Q: What sequence folds into this?
């Protein structure tokens, strides 16, 4: 599905930084919106939709953290991903605060152009994927509504047919025009409706199926379908237990939107939704009447949404974990550098620095072991 160019916003009080970011992102197919303050960014968010916001942390007045807090509090914009840009060193900024305010990543200046472009491209692709799924969900809802309306109309027409049929039994010699009109209306609906309609006997034999029903399963005619599947409950369902469960639910008047896997003519597996109810016909005849809908697309959409949520959660966890592990090792790195400078001149400071490095290494080891606990792997040991 094609969309117009998506919007991304760059928020920075420095005109030179704004221009540099724009040049870096000029090769990406998008619409860049530039804001020189947090207040201006919030105004744009009132009327425009953005795939990602690249937000400077330090700005006069409303800084990046305050701007992100307001964005996160608004229902309309709370899910817009934010990439913070800062000139601070990693150990000089509270990165966890940014993640709590809705940030998905940090970039530390000087920004590497390829890194920035790759990150922005990821969020643009995610934005377009979400839009596609949302549109498909709207289309699916429309199909479900048409299916429901057709089923309701079928129930009303069936009731009218039964009532007219009962009245006509006492007037066999005077068939009314009303009966012919309703019968024709029902026949047209049955033959031309896009949803599958069926009638089956309590023993599982098929009594009637419209073209949409046997066509969905790959059969050329009702007769071909009836011969190939003499018992719906035992032979149509991939799992015989599902066939029996559907049979029982019909008897209990609970067979509404029953999801099951069924076989097509070519033994392909199709995921469908079935609804059926008991009908009492003439001469005490009892049969089941219902509808069938292919829900393979909706099931795939649900699986895609779940995978996207898992990926987003994993990305956030990886970012937080990287920062938690990186900070202690930065302390160790700084300590090693300091030891090289003072080892021969200041023994007290040397001992103190070694103690700081040992504490940092202990914190890192404990944190890594906590992660390992969740996997069941062997823990790390201090040497």
A:
């Amino acid at each position: 599905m094609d969309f117009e160019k998506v919007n991304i916003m760059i928020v920075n009080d420095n005109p030179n930084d704004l221009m540099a970011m724009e040049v870096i992102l000029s090769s990406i197919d998008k619409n860049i919106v530039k804001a020189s303050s947090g207040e201006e960014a919030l105004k744009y968010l009132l009327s425009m939709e953005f795939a990602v916001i690249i937000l400077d942390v330090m700005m006069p007045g409303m800084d990046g953290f305050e701007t992100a807090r307001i964005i996160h509090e608004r229902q309309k914009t709370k899910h817009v991903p934010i990439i913070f840009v800062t000139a601070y060193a990693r150990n000089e900024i509270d990165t966890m605060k940014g993640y709590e305010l809705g940030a998905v990543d940090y970039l530390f200046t000087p920004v590497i152009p390829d890194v920035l472009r790759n990150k922005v491209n990821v969020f643009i692709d995610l934005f377009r994927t979400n839009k596609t799924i949302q549109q498909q969900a709207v289309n699916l809802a429309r199909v479900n509504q048409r299916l429901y309306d057709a089923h309701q109309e079928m129930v009303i027409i069936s009731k009218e047919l039964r009532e007219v049929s009962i009245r006509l039994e006492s007037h066999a010699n005077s068939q009314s025009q009303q009966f012919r009109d309703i019968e024709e209306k029902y026949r047209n609906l049955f033959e031309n409706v896009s949803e599958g309609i069926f009638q089956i006997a309590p023993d599982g034999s098929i009594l009637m199926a419209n073209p949409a029903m046997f066509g969905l399963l790959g059969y050329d005619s009702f007769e071909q379908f009836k011969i190939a599947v003499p018992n719906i409950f035992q032979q149509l369902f991939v799992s015989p237990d599902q066939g029996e469960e559907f049979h029982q639910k019909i008897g209990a008047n609970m067979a509404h939107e029953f999801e099951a896997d069924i076989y097509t003519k070519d033994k392909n597996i199709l995921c469908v939704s079935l609804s059926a109810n008991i009908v009492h016909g003439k001469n005490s005849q009892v049969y089941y009447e219902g509808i069938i809908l292919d829900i393979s697309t909706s099931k795939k959409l649900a699986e895609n949404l779940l995978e996207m949520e898992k990926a987003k959660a994993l990305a956030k966890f990886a970012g937080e974990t990287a920062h938690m592990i990186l900070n202690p090792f930065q302390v160790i790195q700084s300590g090693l550098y300091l030891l090289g400078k003072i080892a021969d001149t200041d023994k007290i400071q040397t001992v103190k620095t070694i103690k700081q490095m040992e504490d940092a290494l202990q914190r890192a080891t404990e944190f890594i072991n906590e992660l390992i606990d969740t996997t069941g792997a062997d823990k790390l040991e201090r040497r």
Remarks:
- The radius of gyration is 33 Å.
- The beta strands are 6-11, 30-35, 50-56, 82-86, 103-108, 196-200, 206-209, 258-263, 269-280, 286-294.
- The chain has a mean pLDDT of 81.
- Residues 113-169 form the longest helix (57 residues).
